[in-house]
Write a structure and sequence with these properties.
It holds the Pfam family NAD_binding_1. This is Oxidoreductase. It contains five helices and eleven strands. By secondary structure, it is an alpha/beta fold. The two termini are about 35 Å apart.
């Protein structure tokens, strides 16, 4: 069982939950955990959530977005409190991960809540002192949908190794230099690291978003062998 040691809001419908997991000795950026909730009548539901943190020791963070028809996320976002205990398995995963010893430049591409495992990579990169270039392209519906906005903006201003590009698909902030619109191949190509630098590319989002982005990357000259993708939910769109 894991103990909830902190909860904090990210958006109106999402929160970050810090957990203390007995026996945990750190985790790798990009991994996920399985969370099981069991009702009084014995019915249980399990959902997977990406780890958002780069914490050492026995703590980790997940960021959960509430789904209107969800069985697990509404409880985690609206009811779970500090001091509660929940059943957790993991961290799990060894493919969609970034290791601090990798000196390659890295291009991260997120659609909506797909930014969560990529944020773990950004935090691990900053904590490690790795000098490789890190870039994030973050596609989201509107300014209020952004996870980790303050931290991302701060890193973009202060770090020589990190930059973020925001793409708003439904509504942009007032005075934004480009109009809102879905991410397309031309916008993607102009915002990401050039294929000549052979970056490691991590893409995470809804299935439709991930498939479109992966295709555009290959068309732009990126090697499929350098692209790792993680999908969630249904087909979605390119937001």
């Amino acid at each position: 069982m894991a103990e909830v040691v902190e909860v904090r809001a990210e958006t109106a419908s999402a929160r970050t939950i810090r957990l203390r997991v007995p026996g945990l000795s750190g985790h790798v950026a990009g991994q996920h955990v399985d969370v099981r909730l069991t009702a009084a009548d014995g019915y249980s539901a399990v959902r997977s959530y990406s780890v958002a943190s780069a914490l050492p020791g026995d703590e980790l963070e997940i960021t959960v977005e509430e789904l209107p028809d969800g069985e697990v996320s509404p409880y985690l976002v609206r009811q779970l409190s500090t001091g509660d205990q929940i059943e957790v398995r993991g961290p799990i995963g060894g493919w969609f991960v970034w290791h601090p010893g990798d000196s390659s430049p890295v291009q991260l591409i997120a659609g909506g809540s797909g930014v969560v495992p990529l944020m773990a990579m950004i935090r691990a990169h900053e904590a490690s002192g790795n000098r490789s270039e890190f870039r994030l392209l973050y596609s989201l519906r509107d300014p209020e949908s952004a996870f980790y906005r303050g931290e991302l903006d701060s890193l973009s201003r202060t770090s020589r190794r990190f930059a973020v590009t925001w793409v708003y698909t439904r509504r942009a902030p007032q005075g934004w230099p480009t109009p809102a619109g879905r991410l397309d191949a031309a916008t993607l190509a102009s915002a990401v690291l050039a294929p000549e630098s052979t970056p490691a590319v991590f893409v995470c989002g809804a299935t439709g978003f991930v498939e479109a982005v992966a295709d555009w990357l290959v068309q732009a000259g990126h090697s499929p062998d350098r692209i790792k993708a993680e999908r969630y939910g249904g087909m979605g769109d390119t937001s």
